[in-house]
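Pipeline run #58 for the internal structure catalog. This entry was flagged by the ingest filter as a single-chain record with no existing model, so it goes straight to prediction. Upstream metadata was stripped on purpose; only the residue string is passed forward. Reviewer on rotation: M.T. Logging verbosity set to normal.
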Amino acid sequence: DMIFIFSASGKNQVPIEMGDEAKATKVKSVGVSSSSYFGRGGRLHEHVDIWLDCKVPYGDACIQVGEATMGGLSTATACFILNTCLIEGAKLALKEGVKPPVYLSGNVDGGREHNVVLENMYLGRVKHL
């Protein structure tokens, strides 16, 4: 079992507690936060088994607009990091001879039907794809 824990700042108590609980229950934890918050209260990296630096700047914004900085990056980087991990995990599973359960877009022919079978598999209604 594995849990991904996302917190751009790594400061919030709930993600930190999630990391601690994962360790206590022997669930492998991956924390994603930014090193730009080290020294500013960011400490998620101290409470997880594996830590990934999402590299977002302090304040999470990237575009100067007058005196304000806008354009948060943490959501986009979190999506990119999680999808990259899932893709690489699926590739590793295939190399080991395990067909990963991958959802298809509902906008492609057969996608919805494939996903219903996948959902039923996890509900114990079918044995395999």
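catalog note: The chain has a mean pLDDT of 94.
catalog note: Residues 64 and 70 are 6 Å apart (CA to CA).
status: ready for reviewer M.T.
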